[in-house]
């Protein structure tokens, strides 16, 4: 993603203001708030120490995430200036800067609300804290027509279910990154192409399982060339930066002949003319299957066949910084983002719940500066945020 950010002038729907209170009237409340912030900071630093995370990074995130937002000296203007410097943001002029400051302040408040609803994770300032919720969803998600597609997915060929014995024998934790099956975290930019990154990740993993070779495959080929529509929900078509579906992309790859490598067809983050060259195909897709809507079956399919393409509700991801996310409210039917499931863990520490939770390990496509090095930990076992509603596996041709 380039240092220059271009934004539309769409209206702001969520704004917040921060007012300095009279110090004399709120001395005791301020002292109590500072004590709570200090205790929280100490707890997080202790967790960071055991997890091998820099305490400096944790301290920076606590102050950025609004735990001290009401204190004199931690005003939104200063936080926003630091955010702009850190992420190389550029705006068209003073009016746009002021508008983005208001959006930033609103997102700091929303991060605090997310923290209350998702206490197992850490929420705060992210590279996308200057985007409204509507802008964020339009530019950084991109899974289309989830409702109709979820219904049509039930008509897809289903993967053979794992037996109870196979499920019982699964390892407690598993990570395809340790096996060499996952490429580096990528960045979709200001383009609703999450579906393309989810697709290439699944194909990269399946090719590794089949051949032992990890290839970096082209999302841009899918963005430029794939206009496939769902077999049942025929109006849900792949449309570059305007969104798409992983299952449509598999169909396109099966009919077109396959997928080129990133080096031969590099990513630009914008839709352009199709430059597909059948003579440079690196991987061919043989078939794909829907994974049963069951998280034990997801674990089995993941271990057996490689990383899985999944859809989920990204409602809590704009403010996610780290930890195991387990929102109290996250509608399962509102699936809007395609990601890659690469592993799972048995014991993910939840700092504010002072306990451990099993989780899914999810590769995102928003760059390594977001989340935990570009990854999202989502608690498993409860179909949180619809994570088991749209899961597919792909097989490559020899």
Could you explain the architecture of this structure?
This protein folds into two domains: 27-138, Helix Hairpins; 139-396, Cysteine proteinases (Cathepsin B, Chain A, Alpha-Beta Complex). It has helices at 27-51, 55-64, 76-87, 94-117, 133-140, 146-153, 164-168, 194-211, 219-225, 246-256, 295-305; strands at residues 121-123, 174-175, 259-260, 281-283, 285-290, 308-312, 320-325, 337-350, 355-363, 375-379, 391-396. It has eleven helices and eleven strands. Helix 1 (27-51) runs antiparallel to helix 2 (55-64). The longest helix has 25 residues, at 27-51. Strands 1, 2, 5, 6, 7, 8, 9, 10 and 11 form a nine-stranded mixed β-sheet that branches. A two-stranded antiparallel sheet has the order 3-4. With 398 residues, the protein is of the alpha+beta class. Keywords: Disulfide bond, Glycoprotein, Hydrolase, Protease, Signal, Thiol protease, Zymogen. One of its GO terms (biological process) is proteolysis involved in protein catabolic process. InterPro entries: Papain-like_cys_pep_sf (IPR038765), Pept_asp_AS (IPR025661), Pept_cys_AS (IPR000169), Pept_his_AS (IPR025660), Peptidase_C1A (IPR013128), Peptidase_C1A_C (IPR000668), Peptidase_C1A_papain-like (IPR039417), Prot_inhib_I29 (IPR013201). Residues 170-395 form the Peptidase C1A papain C-terminal domain.
